């Protein structure tokens, strides 16, 4: 039942030589006949033996420096869970000489992203875990990292024309496509609907959000779904303006049957509907924020689509350190599951890893 | 960033005494002043120090015996994944002296279950991981285990009036309730539907299946959903009979708009529909069998509800060994997530743990 690790002495017994001989062959130290060397190497190959990189890494004196560059956040935000995953990864690396530090940028201010990336690259880390900003800006820094031989991994979303070691995140297009399916397969008639974005004045939309939007619209087109779409953009920290937008949409345009929000802030719309006692709007949101979950449980949000943030960043930290410590390469593209949460299964959901 | 384990010498430095003194206090060996003892104990309490049970367990000479009693299965069956979880748990225990053995019973034959349980109990294991059979029969053996002080944990389903250390599995009622929601919230009209069971002649229904059924019917009642329900029972290994049942239901009663199967064999109905080119039946199934997944991808099954079998048995083995090795108690009831899979998210699903 229990698998056993192969030890040097097991190989020695297979080859009919001493453990010392195996050790000499493994480390290319002389005093072993060519015939014996061949025999030992053949056995090593057959049993797929690899020397203990783990032990070598433990004994290494070099301190690896890993930086994580992610948006700053408020308690309960999506990014808090990304940080949980980073810290979990760091904890499991505590036996190695790895120094992990998190730098935060304002996701609604390109200047802030640039400043933090300049600082990060200037500190010459061995590896960098990056939640990308908009394509054009991020690309400038991935090029700098390529030149400086800084290895980087994307989480949350990826940008084109970059050379990351790997990506860990959701298939954003597909999560938008699924959002549309969940909305339009419901037993309701939707004549008009609203799509909410979230941005800071003058900023392009985040890559993930625009891919979700594309996926959503693509489903609508594939299924020949008609009906007017109202697009509205919230401003971070401008409650009054956001409220006004929702009043226009929900109180003046009474044909609205559904709404979708591609960021993690579906609760803003849900709480508005609750406050004004507006019923019968099918509302789809993303991410397991506490406020979103509360609205899902009260029935104002019909579905939440989740993307395992802790798993993304945990796996990214592990992949980055596995490469830097052991030269072990991760798969390039690593999509996390697209989880569907409803009133009926939310109480049993657990996005965290089961072990450890 | 990286948390550090507290060592004896750290405590010694906090208390301003030698490491030897700390050791003497920890093991209640004399030659330490009461004042110093108090000081050390206070610090130990403050930092929430627990002696290294892990090291003691590693050094122990006793070999623990754990048995897992689960249904025998064919490749690709649900129970194969339960075994994967058991083996994963066993692998991680390979540093300890734990002997884990799996015994299989025929889930459609009560005699077989009894025979295996007699054998299991007679071998006097320290712990037993059990996938229960029907209530009345299982109870007979849990009572025997209680008397013999054999610790046991339920997976997959639980029975009433037993004293397991813990249960790891789905909330079966809720997974049936969700099945109904997924079916009836679809944008289709369902006048008549079929519910399929699976049994061996003369056997009561498995506990999990009957709870799913209750949950399903409860949703229907809560939402005042009407329409005729046809109930049909398949026989394991009687293809001809099963085929005949489906012919009657789907080819002669053409009003059927939906079907649900509470066991893992939804693919049997789906493949029948495909073979006879019957369209427009909403079909809900359970569990990630390869054949089910194929039908989901082809669109003949609309939703699959999954219950993370590997996680159930992996966590159960860990909980059982944690108790037997370290006296660490698990939570009594541990529900796994109820995962919803559709054509749009199946490609990204991964029921396995992310680490290890």
Q: How would you describe what is shown here?
A:
Two copies of one chain form a homodimer. Chain A is 44% helix and 19% strand. With 356 residues, chain A is α/β, with parallel strands linked by helices. Chain A has three domains: 8-51, lambda repressor-like DNA-binding domains (434 Repressor (Amino-terminal Domain)); 62-170 and 309-337, 3-Layer(aba) Sandwich (Rossmann fold), CATH 3.40.50; 172-306, 3-Layer(aba) Sandwich (Rossmann fold). Chain A has a six-stranded parallel β-sheet, with helices on both faces. In chain A, helix 7 links the parallel strand 3 (127-130) and strand 4. In chain A, 42% of the residues are buried.
**Computed structural class of chain A:** alpha/beta
Mean pLDDT of chain A: 88
CATH topology of the largest domain in chain A: Rossmann fold
Overall form of chain A: elongated
* CATH C-level name of the largest domain in chain A: Alpha Beta
The CATH architecture of the largest domain in chain A? 3-Layer(aba) Sandwich
CATH superfamily of the largest domain in chain A: Response regulator
Q: Which oligomerization state do the chains in this entry correspond to? A: homodimer
Q: Which stretches of chain A are poorly predicted, pLDDT < 50 over at least 5 residues?
A: none
Count of beta strands of chain A:
12
Range of strand content of chain A: 15-25%
Tally of structural domains of chain A: 3
| Terminal-residue CA separation of chain A | 22 Å
Largest interchain contact: A-B, 48 and 48 residues
Total helical segments of chain A: 13
Helix content of chain A: 40-55%
């Amino acid at each position: 039942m229990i698998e056993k690790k192969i030890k040097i002495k097991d190989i020695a017994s297979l080859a009919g030589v001493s453990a010392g001989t195996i050790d000499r062959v493994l480390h290319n130290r002389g005093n072993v006949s060519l015939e014996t060397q061949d025999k030992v190497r053949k056995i090593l190959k057959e049993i797929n033996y690899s020397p203990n990189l783990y032990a070598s890494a433990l004994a290494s004196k070099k301190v690896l420096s890993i930086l994580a560059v992610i948006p700053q956040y408020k308690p309960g935000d999506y990014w808090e869970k990304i940080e949980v995953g980073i810290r979990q990864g760091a904890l499991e690396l505590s036996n190695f000489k790895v120094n992990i530090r998190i730098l935060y940028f304002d996701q609604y201010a390109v200047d802030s992203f640039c400043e933090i990336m300049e600082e990060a690259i200037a500190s010459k880390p061995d590896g960098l875990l990056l939640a990308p900003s908009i394509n054009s800006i991020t690309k400038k820094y991935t090029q700098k990292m390529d030149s400086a031989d800084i290895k980087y991994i994307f989480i949350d979303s990826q940008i084109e024309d970059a050379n990351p070691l790997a990506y860990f995140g959701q298939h954003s297009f597909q999560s938008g496509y699924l959002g549309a399916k969940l909305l339009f397969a419901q037993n309701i008639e939707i004549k008009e609907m609203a799509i909410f974005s979230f941005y800071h004045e003058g900023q392009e939309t985040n890559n993930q959000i625009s891919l979700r939007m594309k996926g959503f619209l693509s489903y609508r087109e594939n299924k020949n779904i008609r009906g007017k779409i109202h697009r509205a953009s919230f401003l971070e920290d401008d409650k009054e303006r956001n409220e006004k937008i929702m009043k226009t949409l929900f109180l003046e345009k009474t044909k609205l049957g559904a709404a979708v929000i591609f960021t993690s802030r579906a609760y803003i719309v849900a709480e508005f509907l609750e406050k004004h006692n507006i019923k019968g709007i099918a509302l789809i949101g993303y991410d397991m924020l506490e406020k979103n979950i509360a609205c899902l449980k009260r029935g104002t949000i019909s579905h939440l689509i989740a993307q395992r943030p802790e798993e993304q960043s945990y796996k990214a930290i592990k992949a980055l350190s596995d490469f830097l410590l052991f030269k072990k390469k991760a798969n390039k593209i690593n999509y996390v599951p697209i989880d569907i949460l409803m009133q009926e299964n939310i109480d049993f959901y657990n996005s965290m890893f089961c072990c450890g």
